[in-house]
Design goal:
single chain; 7-stranded mixed β-sheet; Rossmann fold
Length: 154
């Protein structure tokens, strides 16, 4: 649950995935606090709302997306960096969102984007922080398991 307190030290996680959910980063429970408390030691992957939480923690506004997409796919282009090593570009990615990051957070690079340049992936320049707006866990993202494997191998 994202509304309960969590003692990261007692859990001693190797990695953290902040998963999708309804709402905005402002009403995402403890997700933002986990991002603040876990870095820089614990690699974090934010998916959809988790991606938006990472951006929000680093001062980026979350805005209405160019297109509201629920259960649709888009071609996702990327830079072969980090999570996207060994992934063809572009690939089909599942999208279930109506919000997105307005810009790239400071000290992050854009790692993935759509044909109309909507931000689909970010990675911190020095910390193990990754975000994807699309859903790698969806069957509509054929390369999703490889993307998640790349995160596991960070």
């Amino acid at each position: 649950q994202n509304d309960e307190t969590l003692d990261l030290d007692s859990l001693n996680p190797e990695k953290i995935i902040i998963s999708p959910g309804p709402g905005t980063p402002n009403d995402s429970g403890i997700s933002n606090q986990i991002i603040k408390n876990a870095m820089p030691e614990i690699p974090i992957l934010g998916v959809c709302l988790g991606h938006q939480c990472i951006g929000s923690v680093f001062g980026v506004n979350v805005q209405q997306s160019k297109h509201i997409l629920h259960g649709k796919t888009s071609l996702i282009h990327h830079n072969q960096f980090g999570l996207f090593k060994g992934i063809p570009s572009p690939f089909q990615g599942a999208r279930y969102h109506s919000l997105s990051l307005e810009s790239i957070p400071p000290h992050f690079v854009k790692t993935a984007w759509t044909n109309d340049n909507e931000i689909m992936g970010i990675q911190h320049e020095t910390l193990p922080l990754f975000g994807v707006q699309f859903h790698p866990e969806s069957f509509l993202t054929p390369m999703g398991s490889k993307i998640l494997e790349n995160f596991v191998n960070v």
